[in-house]
Design a protein that fits this description.
Strand content: 15-25%
Shape: globular
Structural class: alpha/beta
Radius of gyration: 24 Å
CATH topology of the largest domain: Spore Coat Polysaccharide Biosynthesis Protein SpsA, Chain A
Number of helices: 14
CATH superfamily of the largest domain: Spore Coat Polysaccharide Biosynthesis Protein SpsA, Chain A
Helix content: 25-40%
Strand order of the largest sheet: 3-2-1-9-13-10-18
CATH class of the largest domain: Alpha Beta
Bound molecules: uridine 5'-triphosphate
Largest sheet: 7 strands, mixed
CATH architecture of the largest domain: Alpha-Beta Complex
Distance between the termini: 66 Å
Number of strands: 22
Number of domains: 2
């Protein structure tokens, strides 16, 4: 007989968990009991009941975008951002706690080999950039990496095996996000991951806020003189981890309050599955593609461009003061993601691998912080230069599309440095090129490198 209150389990629709506990004994029962103690039953019940009770939204409007066509404005922002970096006031933050289920890679997604020629992992590619900027500005850039309890150990040991990719280990901080129980999408009952364990999922990239505070990392960063975080996801090897122009705009008081600044990339087509920036209820927000009516997605301006074209590329600059304020607030709202979650089937006593989505995962999203910011800013950036995420095992947003984009950007940078590159009938460069991030994070860095005059068809070139 357990010491749990069966009425509260019944009220939350979770009586099956106590029945399960009664069937276990010894160590298994003790472990399962500790799992049950982690559950916040009233909160779970409220989340399940809240479905469909979202607040009424006004019709969205597109946001104002900073387009940076003006060279003088760009130069000014660049100087400001460079000064901020030279003062050592910026840290990087990579969210790497996701499960990467679409990619299907056996290990944390950051360990995925994404470099076209070197086969360098995503983590190595970001580390190369941080190393390059640390040397450029003469100030260590702390790198905060959010893991989840499901991938923390394997992430940390990957860094150890690779000697932190040459970075000073005392500048690399791992912190772990929270988890939420996955529930059956028909009944709301908490799923089991094994006979004596609950199926927990990471609580979404919005979990960053709470994890930053509870880990004490915000305080540590402050102690190191950090004032802003450059936030990016683990899946985009083209990301500019520390972009002086972007950071300069972020702290430019004439356009921003330095609370949050985000990068947008023009959507390829109305159907592209990417959230878009919009203004709703008077606040800047990200509208998820699944929540947008097709007519809204397809609407165009007079110049033929999509009205809602500002795709969220999940790159943000956050002021630490803003993050402090948020972490003292009520927290971000939970969303429901319907996903396939393998589970222990109590009726058969076997694990089930569902063929179709069977579970609700509760997650918070970092972009829900945007409406809470004063004067948030959205800056348009160039997809070919900065956005080629690896989400899927094949097809769109896969390693193939990302490596092609990496090679095309590299070809563009080499061409700017005077290298002639063989092209196909469509004018596409045909060489395969990788520029290590530790070598160059912008075309100008190639001035220091020995480059060939020409690259012929089918050549592979690494610099
Ligand atoms: P995605 O939305 O692509 O999710 O995460 P995912 O879990 O990586 O992949 P799928 O959907 O299972 O295929 C976007 C970014 O947010 C991070 C991911 O690691 C990735 O960098 N993330 C996501 C977290 O850090 N924690 C989470 O709970 C969810």
């Amino acid at each position: 007989m357990s010491s749990f209150d069966s009425e509260s389990f019944a009220a939350a629709g979770q009586s099956h968990l106590l029945q399960r506990l009664d069937q276990l004994s010894g160590e298994q029962a003790a472990y399962f009991q500790s799992e049950l103690e982690r559950l916040d039953l009233p909160f779970l019940q409220r989340l399940w009941q809240e479905d469909g009770q979202r607040k009424a939204e006004t019709v969205p409007e597109p946001p104002a975008l900073v387009e940076l066509v003006d060279q003088a404005a760009r130069t000014q922002a660049f100087s400001k951002g460079q000064a901020l970096l030279a003062e050592g006031k910026v840290a990087c933050l990579t969210v790497a706690g996701g499960q990467g289920s679409r990619l299907g890679w056996d290990g944390p997604k950051g360990t995925f080999p994404s470099g076209l020629i070197t086969g360098d992992s995503l983590f190595a590619q970001f580390a190369g950039q941080i190393d390059r900027e640390t040397k450029r500005y003469g100030k260590a850039v702390p790198w905060c990496i959010m893991t989840s309890p499901l991938n923390h150990e394997s992430t940390v040991s990957f860094f150890e095996q690779h000697h932190h990719f040459g970075l000073d280990p005392s500048t690399v901080y791992f912190f772990t996000q929270g988890v939420m129980p996955s529930v059956d999408c028909e009944t709301g009952e908490v799923l089991l991951a094994s006979p004596d364990a609950i199926a927990f999922n990471p609580d979404g990239h919005g979990g960053t806020l709470r994890a930053l505070a509870t880990s004490g990392l915000l305080t540590t960063l402050r102690g190191r003189g950090i004032e802003h975080l450059s936030y990016f996801q683990v899946d985009n090897p083209l990301v500019r981890a520390l972009d002086p122009v972007f950071l300069g705009l972020h702290i430019d008081g004439s356009v921003s309050s330095a609370e949050v600044t985000s990068k947008a990339v023009a959507k390829r087509s109305p159907e592209e599955k990417v959230g878009v920036f919009g203004v709703q209820n008077g606040e800047l927000t990200v509208l998820e593609y699944s929540d947008l009516d097709p007519e809204v997605c397809e609407a165009t301006d007079d110049d033929g461009k999509l009205r809602f074209r500002a795709g969220n590329m999940a790159v943000h600059a956050f002021g630490l003061d803003f993050l402090d304020r948020l972490t003292n607030g009520t927290g971000l709202p939970f969303h429901r993601a319907i996903k396939k979650v393998p589970f222990f089937d109590e009726s058969t006593g076997k694990m089930q691998q569902p063929a179709s989505p069977n579970a609700v995962k509760y997650e918070t999203f970092i972009f829900d912080a945007l409406p809470l910011a004063s004067r948030p800013l959205v800056v348009e950036s160039d997809r070919a230069e900065e956005f080629a995420p690896i989400k899927n095992a094949e097809g769109s947003d896969s390693v193939q599309t990302s490596q092609l984009a990496q090679s095309l950007r590299a070809a563009n940078w080499l061409t700017q440095s005077g290298v002639q590159i063989a092209q196909d009938a469509l004018g596409q460069p045909v060489a395969q090129i990788e520029i290590r991030s530790s070598t160059a994070t912008c075309p100008e860095d190639l001035a220091l490198c020995e480059l060939p005059e020409k690259l012929g068809p089918e050549e592979r070139f690494l610099v």
